[in-house]
């Protein structure tokens, strides 16, 4: 019989790539979301307020997935609220499905804030030695990732499913209206620089500019999630999930600039976040979108200045070890420059950015 997957957060960068991978593998895919974004073609859609336990229970009353995937979060004003809301969303789905999850696989996507701490705690505590490894464990700070994990672990004890946790770095992939989308943000930024003659300045910290880094191609994460669904070695394990190469932004930045036909500016004397420099971006993008007949004229649905600033502004080096995955049998790999170029080509093809 055809396998059935339920993806919570299907309209995001990760959910979209995972849905495409599962469909390629012959799975039936259902997405559960708040209904704010388009879902991939061929998928069935369920809509509910994930913070409303009764609404979630009602919409999932007849669902019995072979695999359940969580790639969802809702940004709150502080980490205690992040814990309450985001942990609650995972709990609501698991409890709504209950015993129908017996024998299934449940996968949770979190990220490197597992090692770094949440946005509001960046650089305020001890950071594990790079590269980050799964055995380094949790930081002694409030973190909604830990709350989501604990809900998955508790559900496994109660309902008898196997689980996996996946920790990507910055995701490079395609989705509109996503709050955490650095690749698309940089594409919009580069096009604005080309259009307006603005300098293409790296907006991050000197530690990020000079240190080693890595990222995660959404399609590679989808491959790892699919592998973990059935691989014996992946049952009840946590895994880092990155491309497998490392780079320095001082190497990558001029190559991204060259793709868009612009010059990379010299690294500035002080950090220059995007959010403080993009006051004129909304009107400029509306003009570009109208002239080029682009899909979206509202730059706020394309670019996440704050998140890109947070990623690139970290006051420490951040990259990840993949040995645990490799030893367990997952050998997926992407070259990071190729990941960016592939995304940029997709954005052009879908008329999100100009040719």
Automatic annotation (TrEMBL):
Q: Which InterPro entries match?
A: Epimerase_deHydtase, NAD(P)-bd_dom_sf, PRISE-like_Rossmann-fold
Q: Signal peptide: which range, if any? A: none
Protein name per UniProt: NAD-dependent dehydratase
Domain NAD-dependent epimerase/dehydratase, residue spans:
5-218
Question: What is the species of this protein?
Answer: Pantoea rwandensis
Which superkingdom does the taxonomy of this entry point to? Bacteria
